Amino acid sequence: MRGVELPAVMAIVNVTPDSFSDGGRFLDVGRAVEHGLELAAAGAAVLDVGGESTRPGSQPVPADEQRRRTVPVIKRLAAEVSERVAISIDTTDASVAAAALEAGATVVNDITAGRDPAMMPLVAEAGAGYVFMHMQGTPATMQLDPRYDDVVAEVGAFLAERRDAALEAGIPAGELMADPGLGFGKTVAHNLTLLARLGDVAAAAGVPILVGPSRKGFIGVVGGAPGAPLPLDQREDGTLATVVWALDHGASMVRVHDVAPAVEAVRLLSAMAAAVPTDPDPPVSWRPPTPAPSAGVSSAGGSAW
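Above: the chain's sequence. Below: its structure in token form.
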């Protein structure tokens, strides 16, 4: 995507009363803008503004209400940070996307991958970036009984088909990003399998991959004791572990609530990937300690301490 250097972090800016993690905290325009500015200062490359909760069991929000919630936030954020941070609109409705793009957004994050037939042509005409995601069912039904014969093959094939549809609609390949949709019509086992074989998903998608694990249920289940999933406010460590895994196994972007740790992970992994094993001046601040004087070593070669 233009202006976004990968790998990168996408920050979640929910302007909703009912999102699963932070619903209601940033429903006020001023608070949402302040939160977005804090996330940008923490190193987010993209601010993903959404006015509709897509948590399991949620119902659609009318387009006019989505616009009322998100457009003022996008206008103010674009005026403040658009020269250094991209603004994304998280919506499945082309009319909401159009209003957001006019307000200053440059990316559309569409969890339905173009179920609205007007969405892809709109993105192409606007010259915007497009994130398309796999979801089985709808937010209202997706977690009732998700089933796959081969989750990696099926998600990969779907993303490849949606990539081709986006290309046919006129969106350049360089503006596309695919999301396997962790938690969107997947069991814990499905999510873990997609992460374990993320490289295969990326190869099938044929465009950069975005992974959104932030505070999701599978992290609570895996990280908690049997039968006692971790509550939402105790899932940040698990989120960070998943972020590191995803970045190291093929993801180009991660979408999170808690930006600073993810940005640190991106920087550290990038530095390690760029370092030459014998480089006397590696591109990191850490340096090996100077060897201790030999006086502290016994004649047998063992450490005195």
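The chain has one domain: 8-278.
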